[in-house]
Specification:
globular, two-stranded antiparallel sheet, about 170 residues
Length: about 170
């Protein structure tokens, strides 16, 4: 929750109340649509390992980039990578242009598990969206896109690191 020291850049007196509402409703939506205990191969995976696999859906990345994205130490990242590798969900590969660089990527099994997870999540979201009038649904999705874009502008890059693909 923003502190009172946080300025209201738009000057709208309602924005603090609206931000509080958003902060309350988004986690509730996420818990209902995307529960952690969904029935599929990775339902019991610790959240840190799940986050690594989700990041790797974009493609192979170095351990340092993943640890920066997650805000964890390189030794913690190495332990997570080792566990995921033992589980057969990821594999270490050499970077094509520089064989000294090792990258982490999803294995075929890991990619299949993450794609099954995504399909299940999309199906739950689809069921919820079907309960909304088509025009309202379009407005909602456009508004969410706008919020996503505004969040990129509002949150300094140092506070929200993005992984860079190598």
């Amino acid at each position: 929750m923003p502190s009172s020291k946080c300025p209201n850049p738009c000057g709208d007196p309602c924005v603090k109340e609206q931000a509080g509402h958003l902060e309350a409703v988004l986690p509730e939506i996420m818990r209902r649509l995307f529960p952690l205990a969904m029935e599929h191969a990775i339902a019991d995976m610790p959240i840190g390992q799940l986050r690594v696999c989700a990041i790797l859906l974009t493609g192979p990345l170095s351990l340092s980039i993943i640890s920066e994205e997650l805000g964890i130490s390189s030794s913690a990242m190495t332990q997570i990578a080792d566990r995921l590798e033992r589980a057969g969900l990821v594999e270490r590969v050499f970077e094509a242009d520089d064989r000294r660089v090792r990258l982490l990527q999803l294995s075929a099994h890991g990619r299949a598990a993450m794609e099954a997870r995504r399909r299940a999540r999309v199906a739950r979201a689809q069921a919820a969206l079907c309960g909304i009038d088509p025009k309202a649904r379009e407005t909602l999705l456009c508004s969410l896109d706008g919020l996503a874009a505004a969040s990129l502008e509002a949150v300094p890059a140092a506070d929200a690191p993005r992984p860079k693909q190598i």
